[in-house]
Amino acid sequence: MTLRGLLALLLWLLTGWSTPGAAQPPSPEPERYLHARIPDLALTDQTGRSLSLSDLWSEGPVVITLVSSQCGGLCSPLLRSLVSASAGSEGYKIVVLSFDPRDGVEQMARLSRSLGVDSAGWTLAVTSPQAFEELARSVGFWVVWDESSRQFDHPGVVMGVRDGRLVHLLIGGVVSPTSSRLLEAELAGDFIGSYPLPGYEASFRCLTYEPGAGQVGLDTGILLLFVPGCVTILVTVWIFRRPRRSTESLLGAEGGAEGPRPLPVRPDVERAHLQGRARRESGSVGQAPAP
User: Fold this and answer.
1) What are the φ and ψ backbone dihedral angles of 238, each rounded to 5 degrees?
2) DSSP class of residue 279?
3) Where are the beta strands (DSSP E) in the chain?
4) Could you tell me if residue 143 is inside a domain?
């Protein structure tokens, strides 16, 4: 094999190969879809009951995840982590919505029993393909059928919805405890300026935000921003006023309101000065004017 052929083979191995249409769409970008309006879908839950998403979010915040009951990859660990992270949490309902046309009431009921969530607070449901496509467009979700594995390829998505609007979008295959706390905070209406580090505990916040009213308010943490500036000003004033007071005390301690007193003069020096001035004055008087 020639050197050119070897380089071409190495380039092919490094970059891989792809067939037309095999490229996956990008994962949804949370900042692009936050506060988007979620369509009100008609659902059928694991018990066969008909309801809508608005029936659920009218009672409080809702967490929605999109799965397939027959998924052999991403869906199972995502659901297991969601069950673990939400254990003991209150204040919101969880909706597990299938995008798989093969799923029905029986499959969602079986999935509910396998997860151990066949109780109030969890709704495992199906909807029509047209309704699901509308929901997918609103949050940037996509599904691609992989013929080789006979499975759907898709991103892991967990949505936090309050009053019909998306307030949190988690992308990934696992819901960690930190992500769960962040989700709960945003569902409760707390303003989160940035994604925190693991195990975050925010003792102070500079701002609060009310999404419904679109208003930003000040919090107690804003006071901490003024501490360095105030300390700098106080130290600067102290430095410049201290030598000024020392100078006044040295020069004006005995001068009263009229200022400092003149320094005393030795008598012999003063007498010599007066005699010299008298001689100069007498000499100038005795001289005759020039003709």
Assistant:
1) -65, -40
2) H
3) 42-45, 50-52, 62-67, 93-98, 122-126, 144-146, 151-153, 157-162, 165-171, 207-210, 215-218
4) yes
Question: Pairing mode, if any, of strands 62-67 and 93-98?
Answer: parallel
62 vs 180: CA distance, rounded Å:
13
Host domain of residue 104? 26-190
Q: What does 209-220 look like in DSSP terms, one character per residue? A: EETTTTEEEE-G
Instruction: Answer with the residue of higher pLDDT: 119 or 199.
Output: 119
Question: At residue 18, does pLDDT exceed 60?
Answer: no
The domain total for the chain is 2
Q: Give CA–CA dist 73/224, Å, rounded.
A: 48
Is the whole-model pTM more than 0.90? no
Are 81 and 211 part of one and the same domain? no
**CA distances for 287 relative to 283, 284, 290, 291, angstroms:** 7, 6, 9, 12
Q: Per the domain annotation, does 252 fall within a domain?
A: no
CATH of the domain at 91: 3.40.30.10
Nearest of 181, 220, 217 to residue 201 by alpha carbon: 181
119 belongs to a structural domain: yes
Cβ-contact 146, 24 below 8 angstroms: no
On whether the CB atoms of residues 95 and 111 are closer than 8 A, the answer is no
Same domain, 163 and 207: no
How would DSSP label each residue in 79-105?
A: HHHHHHHTTT--S-EEEEEE--TT--H
